[in-house]
């Protein structure tokens, strides 16, 4: 099922007969002409150019978390929002690089027009109820064979606010929803964040005061106290509803920007930064996820793509701990990280000691971690910013000319890194991140054919993970086209040989 804009009046969470029988949908990109294309391409172009100046605002920035039982008067648990200024615990890279994969560039008219293409949504899954901690929640389960690259969800935010701590804005957004959307949100898991502690304290004070008044009995209460109760009873109900709603929002929301807090002043004041996507929230965690979720700024919706073939009966899964899922070699460490974000334990082959693949999968993760550490140190030694290297294939952006031997060793280690990531069960954009420096290093070494091979592999995977209407995909495609044009202009290497001939991984 897809998430159409809630303003249209259509509720994508209502499983009517039409949705159950439909095999495919086409996302609604806005006002269209007879060919189904956005008519205001100039507006879209201006929007993209404006966004191009604000680099790295890509993808979900806060991890979706799962976890503890919802109770109105339970203690507030830890915050679910990861600081962008914190470091990835496994690699030492900034958290932002876990979500921003490509430094976008200004696109030409043909590439902007590509964003108007309708990408089909194939909702081959059903929401099934499961029990957890005594509560019933819905999870997404495949009901048909899902092919690699299928777009399964394309959902507009049910509620979008500037700050995830703005309780009033969240409540106002909730009040504007249709009954079906409201019901879907109440079915989400909840976990109170620290910013709700003051509201909870106020609720408890109100309850204590009201209990004191109730204990006086009708005969013992004054007329003013009766009026107080008349006012406080509906007010308490509203406060409790706000608390329960905010606990669900903070527990399941995604960031709509990837800029760190110190740079968010660049974003227009009326642009929301956090959104709640009820259908996406039904995706469960796995340390070997079969789906990739990202926010598509061009269409204003969260998209979910299958990164491998999924069989009927399999749950749709993502990582609740970001890229750490591939770098933590110990299942115990990953379980601790999941507990840190209030996510239920994982039972994937990499976490289940009874699984015959358990030991090998965790050895591969240990190899991934080791190479990530070595490459981070090597990039630093060569005066290359590792975060930039993982986003930019155009150049290494170093103030010194790297030693060819160092570059060659880093290139080999990076290729080994990709091999171990794949063996560890990675099928998503983490492969793109580590292939980006391969493109740049190959170009630095003059191996243009090899660089183009790596770039092609990235474009193919970007199409699988993001779709053809995603700006980052189009950026990678744009860079590949430029590299191919440069290669044609340069012609073959002297003597008719082709430099860097070899298969990209």
Automatic annotation (TrEMBL):
Feature: compositional bias, Polar residues: 15-24
One Pfam family named in its UniProt record: SET
InterPro entries hit by this protein: SET_dom (IPR001214), SET_dom_sf (IPR046341), SET_domain_protein (IPR053185)
Region (Disordered): 1-72, 482-505
Residues of the SET domain: 123-321
Superkingdom of this protein's organism: Eukaryota
SUPFAM superfamilies recorded: SET domain
Ranges of compositional bias, category Basic residues: 47-67
Protein name, as recorded: SET domain-containing protein
């Amino acid at each position: 099922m897809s998430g159409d804009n809630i303003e249209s009046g259509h509720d994508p969470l209502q499983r009517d007969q039409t949705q159950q029988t439909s095999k495919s949908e086409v996302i609604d990109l806005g006002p269209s002409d007879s060919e189904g294309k956005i008519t205001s391409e100039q507006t879209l172009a201006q929007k993209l150019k404006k966004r191009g100046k604000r680099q790295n605002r890509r993808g979900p920035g806060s991890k979706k978390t799962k976890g503890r039982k919802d109770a109105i008067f339970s203690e507030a648990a830890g915050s679910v929002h990861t600081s962008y200024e914190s470091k990835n615990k496994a690699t030492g890279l900034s958290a932002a690089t876990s979500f921003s994969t490509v430094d976008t560039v200004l696109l030409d008219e043909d590439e902007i027009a590509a964003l108007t293409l309708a990408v089909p949504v194939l909702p081959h899954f059903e929401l099934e109820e499961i029990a957890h901690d005594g509560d019933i929640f819905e999870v997404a389960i495949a009901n048909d064979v899902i092919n690699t690259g299928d777009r399964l969800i394309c959902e507009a935010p049910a509620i979008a606010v500037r700050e995830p701590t703005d309780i009033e804005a969240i409540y106002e957004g909730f009040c504007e929803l249709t009954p079906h959307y409201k019901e879907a949100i109440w079915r989400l898991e909840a976990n109170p964040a620290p910013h709700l502690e003051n509201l909870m304290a106020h609720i408890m004070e109100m309850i204590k005061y009201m209990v004191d008044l109730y204990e006086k009995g009708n005969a013992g209460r004054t007329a003013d106290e009766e009026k107080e109760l008349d006012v406080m009873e509906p007010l308490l109900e509203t406060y409790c509803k706000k608390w329960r709603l905010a606990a669900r929002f903070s527990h399941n929301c995604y960031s709509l920007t990837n800029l760190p807090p110190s740079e968010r002043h660049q974003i227009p004041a009326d642009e929301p930064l956090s959104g709640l996507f009820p259908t996406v929230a039904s995706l469960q965690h796995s340390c070997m996820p079969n789906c990739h979720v990202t926010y598509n700024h061009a269409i204003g919706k969260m998209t979910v793509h299958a990164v491998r073939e999924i069989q009927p009966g399999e749950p749709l899964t993502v990582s609740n701990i970001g890229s750490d899922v591939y770098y933590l070699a110990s299942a115990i460490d990953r379980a601790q990280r999941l507990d840190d974000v209030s996510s239920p334990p994982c039972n994937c082959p990499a976490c289940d000691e009874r699984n015959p693949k358990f030991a090998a999968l965790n050895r591969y993760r240990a190899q991934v971690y080791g190479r990530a550490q070595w490459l981070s140190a090597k990039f630093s030694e060569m005066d290359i910013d590792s975060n930039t290297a993982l986003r930019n294939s155009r150049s290494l952006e170093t103030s010194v000319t790297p030693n060819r031997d160092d570059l060659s060793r880093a290139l080999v280690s990076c290729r080994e890194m990709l091999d171990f990531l794949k063996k560890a069960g990675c099928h998503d954009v983490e492969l793109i991140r580590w292939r980006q420096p391969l493109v740049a290093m190959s170009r630095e070494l003059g191996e243009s054919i090899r660089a183009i091979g790596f770039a092609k592999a990235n474009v193919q995977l970007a199409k699988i993970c993001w779709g053809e209407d995603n700006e980052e995909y189009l950026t990678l495609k744009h860079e590949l086209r430029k590299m191919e044009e440069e290669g044609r202009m340069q012609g073959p290497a002297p003597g008719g040989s082709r430099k860097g001939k070899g298969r990209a991984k």
